[in-house]
Description:
Blueprint: H1 5-18, H2 40-52, H3 57-69, H4 75-81, H5 83-86, H6 93-104, E1 112-115, E2 121-122, E3 126-133, E4 138-144, H7 148-156, H8 159-169, H9 175-189, H10 192-206, E5 212-213, E6 226-230, H11 237-240, H12 245-266, E7 268-270, E8 278-280, E9 286-288, E10 294-296, H13 299-314, H14 318-327, H15 339-346, E11 359-360, H16 363-373, H17 388-391, H18 394-407, E12 410-411, H19 413-420, H20 431-448
Helix pairs in contact: 2-4, 3-4, 8-9, 12-18, 12-19, 13-14, 14-15, 16-18
Amino acid sequence: MPTSRSKRAFDAARLFVSLGTRHLFTKVKSETDIDKQGDTKSQNSQHIREKYGAMRGVTAKVAQMASYLDTRIPQGTRDALSQFQDNAVGIEWDQAKQVIEKDLGRKLKDFFKEFEETPFAAASIGQVHRAVTRTGDLVAVKVQYPEARDAIVADLKNSQSLATVLKWVFPSMDVNDMSEEIRSRILEELDYVHEAKVQELFYNYYEGHPTIVIPKVHRESSGATVLTTDYIEGLNFYSALNEPQSQLDNFGETIFRFVFRSLYRLKTFNGDPHPGNYIFLPNGKVAFLDFGFSRSFSQSEISDFMEMIHYAVIDPSPKMFRETIERNGLLRSNAPISDAEVYDYFLPYYKIVLEAIPMTISEEYSNSLLSHSFDRKSSLSKYVNVPRSFVVVQRINLGLYAILAQMRATSNWRKIAEEIWPFVLGEPSTAIGEEEQRWIKARNRSDSS
């Protein structure tokens, strides 16, 4: 596993050249039509797995994102890249066992009476094994690759290199804060003790929720590079896409509620919404996995987000909206652009909650947001910026809507949002909303007793 910056940069570049990449996400093109050449599709997938499937670090994260963010990428290429979600090349059992015993400080048999040596999932930083604890609990044990830390540190060690890449994508922006935020969040993913704390925060908050399921952390068999949680049996993302549309709508609503309730009520956002991080259960239930890439926000930051929504959606005012985003650092002051143009530039991000009507989140919409986010031709693009507090939140506009678009999830998103927005507190608008309201009341009674 190469860990030098030059060697890893060369391998990363070779990966994307082999895919015919000409622009990050939005302009990925295949040099051959792999969707129409018989078994070329499977050969391409196997080639990528053999040549690059064992790559760790930021390159694997980018490949993971590219596999689902932009549906204009040829399907065969997306399929080949999707292995980075949960089917990357893992490590041998002997290595995995060494990681576990070294981290926990005792023999494997002291914690588990059964342990499957073959992992059932493998992603960019670690692989996951099914096991049974000494007390009989069925669990999922995530084991960090021994070389993952060195690989990621090598990718991120030179902050100027990361800033240079970001500057190419966002030429007008102050990329130093953005690169530092990305570095901080990615490095936190390597700390499974930190991830366990975040997951316990979510578990304690959502315990008993009618459709949101958070696996319980088993602290006694977790450490810095090993994380043990309840094993959740259900459908993966691509199997769930075969469910009836009514069920997909319920799944989509649950994911939407989880993201925005976590942001506005828990003040913490789980910032890695890719297909491998969901397990789909009956009756619209969704289990949420992997809390390594998360961010907590201050009340001041949450208030800033809410003020933007207020002037964009609740009480539209281009003038006040502009003043708000300038104060928050999203727009440079004194930009020679009218208030109306500024308002129109940011409005696509709020499209699904502008009106209280049912709306299908389509691939056309999610792709348009991706293009809009990376558009360097807009007259406004040279004046916009992404401050640190908005870097992870931007994943809502990209990752979340890409997921919901593949489901073609349909709902009255405005009404659901009004239930969650603290400054509205609307009445339940769906069956899931009514169940959630009962859960909230039960939580409040428990907290007050």
